[in-house]
Design a protein that fits this description.
Oligomer: single chain
Distance between the termini: 34 Å
Shape: globular
Number of strands: 0
Radius of gyration: 16 Å
Number of helices: 8
Largest sheet: none
Structural class: mainly alpha
Helix content: over 70%
Strand content: under 5%
Length: 159
């Protein structure tokens, strides 16, 4: 019997191979297995992964719908870090949908949460995305300033 972790690993492998539809099926199986195991914390993770697959396929509305479910899941669970990660991903979805105002809002909330949580690398990466959006909209000075602050964030060291 395949475990939730095995379905998740399969989904990640398929995603990396750009087999997004197959990856989504594996992540959906992981959701069902995690729910059976009572590991509801992982449900939102798998929803986010499915959303990223939809985004990669250009299916922005589907990505938006499932990522909003993941966001609600993490907010209800009080998981600020995962909620902020989803908000950052939602910013990219809103950019693709052409909704710049919502993209700004998502990026800003994500950046604020990362800063509050001390997640300097994620804070910096989110500011880079926000700065890129500003530059693409012709707000060169604001974009350059935001981008500069993003670049100033020290990367997190790994062992």
């Amino acid at each position: 019997m395949t475990t939730a972790n095995e379905y998740q690993a399969q989904g990640i492998r398929l995603f990396k191979q750009k087999e997004y539809e197959e990856a989504a099926r594996a992540f959906q199986q992981a959701i069902e297995a995690y729910e059976t195991d009572g590991r509801t914390d992982m449900v939102g993770e798998m929803q986010t992964n499915i959303g990223l697959g939809h985004r990669a396929l250009g299916e922005q509305q589907q990505a938006l719908d499932i990522m909003q479910q993941a966001l609600a899941h993490f907010q209800e669970a009080g998981d600020a870090l995962r909620a902020a990660k989803v908000l950052g991903n939602l910013g990219g979805v809103f950019v693709a949908l052409g909704d710049r105002d919502q993209a700004y809002t998502c990026y800003r909330h994500a950046a604020d949460a990362f800063q509050e949580l001390g997640e300097t690398q994620l804070y910096g990466e989110t500011l880079l995305a926000l700065g890129d959006l500003q530059v693409r909209e012709g707000k060169l000075m604001a974009g350059a300033s935001t981008y500069e602050v993003g670049l100033e964030q020290p990367p997190e060291l790994t062992p």
